[in-house]
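User
Class, as today's exercise, I want you to study this protein, comparing sequence with C-alpha coordinates, and judge whether sequence predicts the C-alpha coordinates.
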Amino acid sequence: MSAIEIMTTASLGDSSYLLVSGDEAALVDPQRDSWELMESCTSRGVRIRYVLETHVHNDYVSGALEVRAATGATVAGPARAPYAFDHLPLAEDDEIVVGGATVRAMETPGHTAEHTSYLVFDDPRMAPTAVFTGGSLLVGSAGRTDLSGDDRTEELARAQFRSLRRLSLLPDATRVLPTHGAGSSCAAGPVSGSRTTTVGAERRSNPTLAIQNEERFIVERLSGLPPYPAYYRYMAPINRAGPEVLGGRPELRPLTPGMVEGLVGGGAQLVDGRDRRSFAAAHLPGSLCDELDDRFASLVGEVVPFGARLALVLPEPEEEAADEAMMQLLRIGYENVAGYLAGGVDAWQAAGRPVRSFRTADVAELAGHIAERRVLDVRPDRPEGGIPGTLAVPLAELPRRLGEMPRDGEIWTVCGSGRRATIAASLLDRVGIPVTAVISGGVGDLMPQA
Protein backbone atom coordinates (compact mmCIF):
# COMPACT_ATOMS: atom_id res chain seq x y z
CA MET A 1 0.00 0.00 0.00
CA SER A 2 1.14 3.51 -0.75
CA ALA A 3 1.23 6.33 1.79
CA ILE A 4 0.72 10.03 1.14
CA GLU A 5 2.36 12.67 3.30
CA ILE A 6 1.19 16.28 3.26
CA MET A 7 3.43 19.34 3.64
CA THR A 8 1.53 22.61 4.16
CA THR A 9 3.04 26.02 3.44
CA ALA A 10 0.82 28.26 5.55
CA SER A 11 2.31 31.47 4.20
CA LEU A 12 0.91 30.66 0.74
CA GLY A 13 -2.10 28.55 1.67
CA ASP A 14 -0.68 25.67 -0.37
CA SER A 15 0.10 22.00 0.14
CA SER A 16 2.65 19.66 -1.42
CA TYR A 17 2.39 15.87 -1.26
CA LEU A 18 4.83 13.00 -1.05
CA LEU A 19 3.49 9.73 -2.43
CA VAL A 20 5.57 6.87 -1.01
CA SER A 21 5.33 3.26 -2.14
CA GLY A 22 8.01 0.87 -1.03
CA ASP A 23 11.34 2.65 -1.31
CA GLU A 24 10.20 5.04 -4.08
CA ALA A 25 8.36 8.34 -3.98
CA ALA A 26 6.80 11.05 -6.12
CA LEU A 27 6.71 14.63 -4.89
CA VAL A 28 3.71 16.66 -6.07
CA ASP A 29 3.85 20.46 -6.51
CA PRO A 30 6.90 21.04 -4.30
CA GLN A 31 7.89 24.35 -2.80
CA ARG A 32 11.31 25.80 -3.54
CA ASP A 33 12.60 25.04 -0.05
CA SER A 34 12.13 21.26 -0.08
CA TRP A 35 15.65 20.51 1.14
CA GLU A 36 14.65 19.15 4.56
CA LEU A 37 12.09 16.87 2.93
CA MET A 38 14.73 15.51 0.57
CA GLU A 39 17.08 14.87 3.50
CA SER A 40 14.27 13.07 5.31
CA CYS A 41 13.68 10.81 2.31
CA THR A 42 17.37 10.00 2.09
CA SER A 43 17.56 9.13 5.79
CA ARG A 44 14.54 6.81 5.38
CA GLY A 45 16.01 5.11 2.33
CA VAL A 46 13.29 6.52 0.06
CA ARG A 47 14.26 7.60 -3.44
CA ILE A 48 12.28 10.45 -5.04
CA ARG A 49 11.80 9.13 -8.58
CA TYR A 50 9.43 11.79 -9.87
CA VAL A 51 8.43 15.38 -9.28
CA LEU A 52 4.86 15.88 -10.49
CA GLU A 53 3.55 19.32 -11.43
CA THR A 54 -0.21 19.75 -11.76
CA HIS A 55 0.15 23.09 -13.58
CA VAL A 56 2.43 26.06 -14.18
CA HIS A 57 2.13 27.77 -10.83
CA ASN A 58 1.02 31.38 -10.51
CA ASP A 59 1.54 31.86 -6.78
CA TYR A 60 5.01 30.51 -6.04
CA VAL A 61 8.32 29.54 -7.58
CA SER A 62 8.32 25.80 -8.14
CA GLY A 63 10.83 23.60 -6.37
CA ALA A 64 10.81 20.95 -9.11
CA LEU A 65 14.25 21.79 -10.48
CA GLU A 66 15.71 22.01 -6.96
CA VAL A 67 14.52 18.45 -6.30
CA ARG A 68 15.81 17.20 -9.65
CA ALA A 69 19.22 18.76 -9.09
CA ALA A 70 19.54 17.18 -5.64
CA THR A 71 18.04 13.74 -6.31
CA GLY A 72 18.09 13.07 -10.03
CA ALA A 73 14.29 12.76 -10.04
CA THR A 74 12.41 13.07 -13.31
CA VAL A 75 10.26 16.18 -13.56
CA ALA A 76 6.87 15.26 -15.03
CA GLY A 77 4.05 17.63 -15.85
CA PRO A 78 1.15 18.45 -18.13
CA ALA A 79 1.86 17.68 -21.79
CA ARG A 80 0.41 21.06 -22.73
CA ALA A 81 2.65 23.02 -20.36
CA PRO A 82 5.16 25.10 -22.34
CA TYR A 83 8.13 24.30 -20.11
CA ALA A 84 11.49 25.40 -21.53
CA PHE A 85 13.40 22.67 -19.66
CA ASP A 86 13.57 18.91 -20.11
CA HIS A 87 10.64 17.11 -18.54
CA LEU A 88 8.36 14.12 -19.02
CA PRO A 89 5.09 15.33 -20.60
CA LEU A 90 1.98 13.54 -19.34
CA ALA A 91 -1.24 13.59 -21.39
CA GLU A 92 -4.63 12.01 -20.63
CA ASP A 93 -4.24 8.41 -19.36
CA ASP A 94 -0.42 8.48 -19.42
CA GLU A 95 0.99 6.59 -16.45
CA ILE A 96 4.08 6.42 -14.30
CA VAL A 97 4.90 3.78 -11.70
CA VAL A 98 6.12 4.64 -8.20
CA GLY A 99 7.03 1.51 -6.26
CA GLY A 100 3.85 -0.53 -6.30
CA ALA A 101 1.60 2.44 -7.09
CA THR A 102 0.43 3.63 -10.48
CA VAL A 103 -0.15 7.34 -11.16
CA ARG A 104 -2.39 8.21 -14.12
CA ALA A 105 -2.75 11.64 -15.70
CA MET A 106 -6.24 13.15 -15.99
CA GLU A 107 -6.42 16.38 -17.95
CA THR A 108 -8.48 18.92 -15.98
CA PRO A 109 -8.03 22.34 -17.63
CA GLY A 110 -9.63 25.36 -16.04
CA HIS A 111 -7.45 26.86 -13.34
CA THR A 112 -4.87 26.99 -16.15
CA ALA A 113 -5.09 25.73 -19.72
CA GLU A 114 -2.64 22.87 -19.15
CA HIS A 115 -3.88 21.84 -15.70
CA THR A 116 -3.63 18.09 -15.06
CA SER A 117 -4.75 16.04 -12.07
CA TYR A 118 -3.21 12.68 -11.12
CA LEU A 119 -5.08 9.56 -10.05
CA VAL A 120 -3.35 7.18 -7.65
CA PHE A 121 -3.95 3.40 -7.90
CA ASP A 122 -2.57 0.87 -5.46
CA ASP A 123 -3.95 -1.70 -7.90
CA PRO A 124 -4.59 -0.50 -11.47
CA ARG A 125 -7.47 -3.01 -11.73
CA MET A 126 -9.29 -1.30 -8.84
CA ALA A 127 -10.70 2.18 -8.25
CA PRO A 128 -8.29 5.05 -7.53
CA THR A 129 -7.50 5.67 -3.89
CA ALA A 130 -6.64 9.35 -4.31
CA VAL A 131 -6.44 12.19 -6.81
CA PHE A 132 -4.06 15.13 -6.74
CA THR A 133 -6.31 17.97 -7.93
CA GLY A 134 -3.90 20.93 -7.81
CA GLY A 135 -5.98 24.02 -8.57
CA SER A 136 -9.06 22.26 -9.94
CA LEU A 137 -11.30 20.76 -7.24
CA LEU A 138 -10.51 22.35 -3.86
CA VAL A 139 -11.98 21.70 -0.43
CA GLY A 140 -15.30 23.53 -0.61
CA SER A 141 -14.39 25.51 -3.70
CA ALA A 142 -12.46 25.46 -6.99
CA GLY A 143 -9.43 27.20 -8.44
CA ARG A 144 -9.96 30.61 -10.04
CA THR A 145 -9.69 30.88 -13.82
CA ASP A 146 -8.64 34.51 -14.32
CA LEU A 147 -4.90 34.20 -13.69
CA SER A 148 -4.02 33.67 -17.35
CA GLY A 149 -5.47 37.01 -18.47
CA ASP A 150 -8.89 38.51 -19.11
CA ASP A 151 -8.97 37.22 -22.67
CA ARG A 152 -8.93 33.60 -21.45
CA THR A 153 -10.96 33.83 -18.26
CA GLU A 154 -14.34 32.72 -19.61
CA GLU A 155 -12.83 30.00 -21.81
CA LEU A 156 -11.01 28.56 -18.80
CA ALA A 157 -14.09 28.89 -16.58
CA ARG A 158 -16.02 26.74 -19.05
CA ALA A 159 -13.19 24.22 -19.04
CA GLN A 160 -13.20 24.27 -15.23
CA PHE A 161 -16.94 23.49 -15.21
CA ARG A 162 -16.34 20.37 -17.30
CA SER A 163 -13.25 19.33 -15.32
CA LEU A 164 -15.12 19.57 -12.02
CA ARG A 165 -17.93 17.42 -13.44
CA ARG A 166 -15.37 14.76 -14.44
CA LEU A 167 -13.72 14.76 -11.02
CA SER A 168 -17.11 14.53 -9.29
CA LEU A 169 -17.75 11.21 -11.06
CA LEU A 170 -14.86 9.51 -9.26
CA PRO A 171 -15.81 7.05 -6.48
CA ASP A 172 -16.97 8.66 -3.23
CA ALA A 173 -14.06 7.29 -1.20
CA THR A 174 -11.40 8.79 -3.47
CA ARG A 175 -9.23 11.17 -1.45
CA VAL A 176 -9.05 14.67 -2.92
CA LEU A 177 -5.61 16.24 -2.42
CA PRO A 178 -5.58 19.84 -3.71
CA THR A 179 -2.54 22.08 -3.87
CA HIS A 180 -4.40 25.30 -3.09
CA GLY A 181 -6.27 25.71 0.18
CA ALA A 182 -7.27 28.23 2.82
CA GLY A 183 -5.10 31.34 2.54
CA SER A 184 -4.37 30.94 -1.17
CA SER A 185 -5.41 33.65 -3.61
CA CYS A 186 -5.64 30.96 -6.30
CA ALA A 187 -9.07 29.94 -5.01
CA ALA A 188 -12.30 31.35 -6.41
CA GLY A 189 -14.24 32.04 -3.24
CA PRO A 190 -13.96 30.73 0.31
CA VAL A 191 -12.03 27.52 0.93
CA SER A 192 -12.45 25.20 3.89
CA GLY A 193 -9.74 25.13 6.52
CA SER A 194 -9.39 21.39 5.89
CA ARG A 195 -6.53 20.53 3.55
CA THR A 196 -7.91 17.30 2.12
CA THR A 197 -11.32 15.80 1.52
CA THR A 198 -13.04 13.06 -0.48
CA VAL A 199 -15.01 13.12 -3.69
CA GLY A 200 -18.15 12.06 -1.82
CA ALA A 201 -17.83 14.84 0.74
CA GLU A 202 -17.33 17.43 -2.01
CA ARG A 203 -20.24 16.16 -4.05
CA ARG A 204 -22.47 16.66 -0.98
CA SER A 205 -21.17 20.03 0.18
CA ASN A 206 -19.07 21.88 -2.42
CA PRO A 207 -21.18 24.71 -3.91
CA THR A 208 -19.24 24.61 -7.18
CA LEU A 209 -20.41 21.03 -7.76
CA ALA A 210 -24.01 21.94 -6.90
CA ILE A 211 -24.23 24.20 -9.95
CA GLN A 212 -25.40 22.00 -12.82
CA ASN A 213 -25.94 24.77 -15.37
CA GLU A 214 -22.79 25.91 -17.16
CA GLU A 215 -23.98 29.48 -17.77
CA ARG A 216 -24.89 29.93 -14.11
CA PHE A 217 -21.51 28.49 -13.14
CA ILE A 218 -19.72 31.06 -15.34
CA VAL A 219 -21.67 33.97 -13.83
CA GLU A 220 -21.13 32.87 -10.24
CA ARG A 221 -17.49 31.89 -10.66
CA LEU A 222 -16.50 35.14 -12.35
CA SER A 223 -18.36 37.56 -10.07
CA GLY A 224 -16.77 38.98 -6.96
CA LEU A 225 -13.34 37.43 -7.48
CA PRO A 226 -10.96 38.90 -4.89
CA PRO A 227 -7.81 40.65 -6.11
CA TYR A 228 -4.64 38.61 -6.25
CA PRO A 229 -1.11 39.79 -5.34
CA ALA A 230 0.77 41.78 -7.97
CA TYR A 231 3.73 39.38 -7.86
CA TYR A 232 1.57 36.62 -9.38
CA ARG A 233 2.16 37.97 -12.89
CA TYR A 234 5.86 37.07 -12.59
CA MET A 235 5.51 33.50 -11.32
CA ALA A 236 4.29 31.66 -14.41
CA PRO A 237 7.05 33.03 -16.70
CA ILE A 238 9.69 32.02 -14.13
CA ASN A 239 8.20 28.55 -13.76
CA ARG A 240 7.87 28.03 -17.50
CA ALA A 241 11.50 29.01 -18.07
CA GLY A 242 12.77 27.05 -15.06
CA PRO A 243 13.81 28.84 -11.85
CA GLU A 244 17.44 29.22 -10.89
CA VAL A 245 18.61 26.25 -8.81
CA LEU A 246 19.80 27.48 -5.41
CA GLY A 247 21.24 24.16 -4.27
CA GLY A 248 20.46 24.68 -0.62
CA ARG A 249 19.21 27.09 1.99
CA PRO A 250 20.82 30.52 1.57
CA GLU A 251 21.85 32.56 4.59
CA LEU A 252 21.25 36.27 5.01
CA ARG A 253 24.28 38.30 6.02
CA PRO A 254 24.19 40.80 8.91
CA LEU A 255 24.62 44.43 7.89
CA THR A 256 26.05 47.43 9.73
CA PRO A 257 24.15 50.73 9.87
CA GLY A 258 26.63 52.14 7.37
CA MET A 259 26.01 49.30 4.95
CA VAL A 260 22.23 49.73 5.25
CA GLU A 261 22.57 53.46 4.69
CA GLY A 262 24.60 52.79 1.54
CA LEU A 263 22.07 50.27 0.26
CA VAL A 264 19.19 52.68 0.77
CA GLY A 265 21.16 55.39 -0.98
CA GLY A 266 21.51 52.99 -3.90
CA GLY A 267 17.76 52.42 -4.12
CA ALA A 268 17.23 49.42 -1.84
CA GLN A 269 13.90 49.16 -0.02
CA LEU A 270 13.80 48.67 3.73
CA VAL A 271 11.32 46.12 5.06
CA ASP A 272 10.83 45.98 8.84
CA GLY A 273 9.44 42.70 10.19
CA ARG A 274 8.94 43.84 13.80
CA ASP A 275 5.51 44.17 15.40
CA ARG A 276 3.38 47.16 14.44
CA ARG A 277 3.59 48.98 17.79
CA SER A 278 7.38 48.79 17.91
CA PHE A 279 7.60 49.98 14.31
CA ALA A 280 5.30 52.94 14.89
CA ALA A 281 7.29 53.99 17.97
CA ALA A 282 10.64 54.04 16.15
CA HIS A 283 11.68 52.96 12.66
CA LEU A 284 14.29 53.71 10.03
CA PRO A 285 13.23 56.53 7.71
CA GLY A 286 11.67 55.18 4.53
CA SER A 287 11.05 51.67 5.86
CA LEU A 288 7.97 49.55 5.30
CA CYS A 289 6.24 47.83 8.22
CA ASP A 290 5.39 44.20 7.48
CA GLU A 291 5.23 41.97 10.54
CA LEU A 292 7.08 38.68 10.15
CA ASP A 293 4.31 36.10 10.26
CA ASP A 294 2.75 33.73 7.73
CA ARG A 295 1.63 36.64 5.52
CA PHE A 296 4.97 38.45 5.46
CA ALA A 297 6.11 37.64 1.93
CA SER A 298 2.68 37.81 0.31
CA LEU A 299 2.25 41.37 1.61
CA VAL A 300 5.75 42.29 0.42
CA GLY A 301 4.51 41.02 -2.93
CA GLU A 302 1.58 43.44 -2.78
CA VAL A 303 3.51 46.66 -2.25
CA VAL A 304 7.20 46.15 -3.13
CA PRO A 305 8.14 46.08 -6.84
CA PHE A 306 9.19 42.64 -8.02
CA GLY A 307 12.98 42.38 -8.30
CA ALA A 308 13.63 45.26 -5.90
CA ARG A 309 16.78 45.18 -3.79
CA LEU A 310 15.78 44.62 -0.15
CA ALA A 311 17.35 45.17 3.24
CA LEU A 312 15.56 43.88 6.33
CA VAL A 313 15.06 44.97 9.93
CA LEU A 314 14.02 41.95 11.98
CA PRO A 315 12.65 40.97 15.39
CA GLU A 316 14.62 38.92 17.87
CA PRO A 317 16.05 36.34 17.55
CA GLU A 318 17.45 37.88 14.38
CA GLU A 319 19.11 34.80 12.86
CA GLU A 320 15.94 32.74 13.18
CA ALA A 321 13.86 35.61 11.80
CA ALA A 322 16.30 36.04 8.90
CA ASP A 323 15.92 32.39 7.94
CA GLU A 324 12.11 32.59 7.98
CA ALA A 325 12.00 35.89 6.07
CA MET A 326 14.43 34.66 3.42
CA MET A 327 12.53 31.43 2.83
CA GLN A 328 9.21 33.20 2.45
CA LEU A 329 10.70 35.70 0.01
CA LEU A 330 12.45 33.04 -2.07
CA ARG A 331 9.19 31.13 -2.46
CA ILE A 332 7.72 34.06 -4.39
CA GLY A 333 10.86 35.00 -6.30
CA TYR A 334 12.14 37.92 -4.21
CA GLU A 335 15.78 36.85 -4.32
CA ASN A 336 17.59 40.20 -4.22
CA VAL A 337 17.91 40.47 -0.44
CA ALA A 338 21.12 42.16 0.71
CA GLY A 339 20.85 41.16 4.36
CA TYR A 340 19.48 42.38 7.69
CA LEU A 341 20.45 45.20 10.02
CA ALA A 342 22.39 43.54 12.85
CA GLY A 343 21.16 44.88 16.18
CA GLY A 344 18.12 46.45 14.58
CA VAL A 345 16.88 49.90 15.43
CA ASP A 346 18.98 50.05 18.60
CA ALA A 347 22.17 49.65 16.55
CA TRP A 348 20.92 52.27 14.09
CA GLN A 349 20.30 54.82 16.85
CA ALA A 350 23.54 53.95 18.63
CA ALA A 351 25.33 54.89 15.40
CA GLY A 352 23.79 58.36 15.64
CA ARG A 353 21.24 57.90 12.88
CA PRO A 354 17.67 59.28 13.06
CA VAL A 355 14.42 57.35 13.38
CA ARG A 356 10.84 58.25 12.58
CA SER A 357 7.56 57.49 14.35
CA PHE A 358 3.81 57.92 13.91
CA ARG A 359 0.70 57.69 16.06
CA THR A 360 -1.28 54.52 16.58
CA ALA A 361 -4.82 54.06 17.82
CA ASP A 362 -7.38 51.40 18.60
CA VAL A 363 -10.56 51.43 16.56
CA ALA A 364 -12.50 52.79 19.56
CA GLU A 365 -10.66 56.11 19.17
CA LEU A 366 -12.01 56.44 15.65
CA ALA A 367 -15.56 55.26 16.29
CA GLY A 368 -17.97 58.15 16.44
CA HIS A 369 -15.43 60.59 14.98
CA ILE A 370 -15.26 59.40 11.37
CA ALA A 371 -16.89 62.55 10.00
CA GLU A 372 -14.26 64.68 11.74
CA ARG A 373 -11.25 62.74 10.45
CA ARG A 374 -9.79 61.84 7.10
CA VAL A 375 -9.96 58.05 6.96
CA LEU A 376 -8.23 55.80 4.40
CA ASP A 377 -9.66 52.27 4.04
CA VAL A 378 -7.01 49.97 2.51
CA ARG A 379 -8.83 46.65 2.55
CA PRO A 380 -8.46 44.66 -0.69
CA ASP A 381 -12.24 44.55 -1.15
CA ARG A 382 -15.28 46.14 0.49
CA PRO A 383 -18.20 43.73 0.08
CA GLU A 384 -20.50 45.81 2.29
CA GLY A 385 -19.69 49.03 0.45
CA GLY A 386 -17.38 50.56 3.00
CA ILE A 387 -17.83 53.56 5.24
CA PRO A 388 -19.42 56.59 3.56
CA GLY A 389 -17.14 59.60 3.39
CA THR A 390 -13.87 57.69 3.66
CA LEU A 391 -11.10 57.35 1.09
CA ALA A 392 -10.88 53.82 -0.31
CA VAL A 393 -7.64 52.61 -1.90
CA PRO A 394 -6.69 48.91 -1.71
CA LEU A 395 -3.25 48.49 -0.17
CA ALA A 396 -1.83 46.94 -3.35
CA GLU A 397 -2.73 50.12 -5.28
CA LEU A 398 -1.50 52.60 -2.67
CA PRO A 399 2.20 52.78 -3.71
CA ARG A 400 1.29 54.07 -7.16
CA ARG A 401 -1.49 56.32 -5.86
CA LEU A 402 0.38 58.11 -3.10
CA GLY A 403 0.31 61.26 -5.22
CA GLU A 404 -3.49 61.32 -4.89
CA MET A 405 -3.35 61.43 -1.11
CA PRO A 406 -4.19 64.79 0.51
CA ARG A 407 -1.32 66.40 2.38
CA ASP A 408 -3.10 69.17 4.25
CA GLY A 409 -3.83 67.14 7.36
CA GLU A 410 -3.56 63.83 9.15
CA ILE A 411 -4.82 60.60 7.57
CA TRP A 412 -6.13 57.72 9.67
CA THR A 413 -5.49 54.33 8.04
CA VAL A 414 -7.85 51.44 8.68
CA CYS A 415 -8.39 47.92 7.32
CA GLY A 416 -9.96 44.76 8.70
CA SER A 417 -7.62 44.06 11.60
CA GLY A 418 -4.81 46.64 11.67
CA ARG A 419 -2.24 44.72 9.63
CA ARG A 420 -2.71 46.43 6.27
CA ALA A 421 -3.49 49.72 7.98
CA THR A 422 0.00 49.75 9.51
CA ILE A 423 1.65 48.93 6.19
CA ALA A 424 -0.33 51.77 4.61
CA ALA A 425 0.70 54.13 7.40
CA SER A 426 4.35 53.29 6.78
CA LEU A 427 3.90 54.10 3.08
CA LEU A 428 2.31 57.46 3.91
CA ASP A 429 4.95 58.22 6.54
CA ARG A 430 7.64 57.49 3.97
CA VAL A 431 6.46 60.41 1.84
CA GLY A 432 5.96 62.74 4.80
CA ILE A 433 2.16 62.57 5.19
CA PRO A 434 1.04 62.82 8.85
CA VAL A 435 -0.68 59.57 9.77
CA THR A 436 -2.35 57.63 12.55
CA ALA A 437 -2.60 53.86 12.07
CA VAL A 438 -5.60 52.04 13.51
CA ILE A 439 -3.64 48.97 14.58
CA SER A 440 -6.33 47.15 16.55
CA GLY A 441 -9.80 46.50 15.16
CA GLY A 442 -11.10 47.57 11.81
CA VAL A 443 -13.91 48.57 9.53
CA GLY A 444 -16.20 45.84 10.79
CA ASP A 445 -16.17 47.52 14.20
CA LEU A 446 -16.97 50.89 12.64
CA MET A 447 -19.86 49.93 10.38
CA PRO A 448 -22.59 50.22 13.05
CA GLN A 449 -21.52 53.83 13.64
CA ALA A 450 -21.20 54.62 9.94
